[in-house]
Amino acid sequence: MILAQLDAPEILCLQETRIRTRDSEDVASMQAAIPGYRCHFSLNRDARNVTYRGGRAYGVATYVRESLGPATMEVPEWDLEGRVVLTHLRGCVVGNIYAVNGSDKPYFDHERGMLSGDRHAFKRRFQERVIHRARELRASAPVILAGDWNVSPTKLDTYPRLRTAEPHVKARTALADLLARSGMVDIYRQLHPEERRYTWFSRRARLGQLDAARVDYILVSEDLVSRVRSATILDDPRYRAGSDHAPTVLELSLT
To answer: Carries keyword Hydrolase (predicted)?
Structure first.
């Protein structure tokens, strides 16, 4: 269904798979779900911070056409919640991102072996680590980072209004500062500087009222901008049946 609606893309990035690493049958089914595609994934393995839904939370999966040639998978050691998978292809690296949605819940830092701030602070650390890794990778190949960032960049990206209270301002400012130094471009906004389109739609909105935001976006390294053909948001309800998010699509040429 998804492949048919999206015209069988060469790369498909999915977030929030809700499969645990120990769910072996589900993992096998996920890997074999789309014939002709390789499945690269990162799943939640943090039993300390993620206990709801029986630990079946988060998780990202990237499906890559086998015809694209050799592809290798990278999951950062620090990604315990299943939020980042990097696919190394000939000519570029594609990152599938499901960023942290901050909250005031305490966060247990496994590297330090102790509670360290809340999930708002963890959200900012996550952003920094993802962008830092992208900067490292750009030294050898163009980079694409696609997914749910859980941050609306500007007032153009939310309706009815942009959140102006903390900690939302801090998260937005931190990500903007990171991107300004990263050499990564929010390609939808680059191509559509004044357009108001959204990728997340609240299920709690009253009938006929809009409560929405653009929190899903694709970042491309500056050296790829000239190769981009289009960047679109498929916000028609038929493309988001069963989800409160709309697909974002990038078309570019690497040849």
So the answer is: yes
Q: Which of 231, 212, 230, 101 is nearest to 156 (CA)?
A: 212
- Whether the upstream peptide bond of residue 247 has omega within 30° of 0, thus cis, is no
Distance separating alpha carbons of residues 80 and 47, to the nearest angstrom: 9
Spatial distance between the Cα atoms of 119 and 188, rounded to a whole number of angstroms: 28
CA atoms lying within 13 Å on the CB side of residue 26: 12
What are the residue ranges spanned by the domains of the chain?
Answer: 2-252
pTM recorded for the entire structure: 0.96
Instruction: Dump the DSSP string for 67-120.
Output: GG--EEEE--TT--SS-EEEEEETTEEEEEEE-----SSEEEETTTTEEEEEHH
Q: What does CATH list as the number for 2-252?
A: 3.60.10.10
- CB burial string 60-88: b at 16+ within 10 A, e below: bbbbbbeebeebeebbeeebbbbbbbbbb
pLDDT one-digit tens code per residue, 141-173:
999 999 999 999 999 999 999 999 999 999 999
Q: Which of 88, 193, 86 is closest to 145 using CA atoms?
A: 86
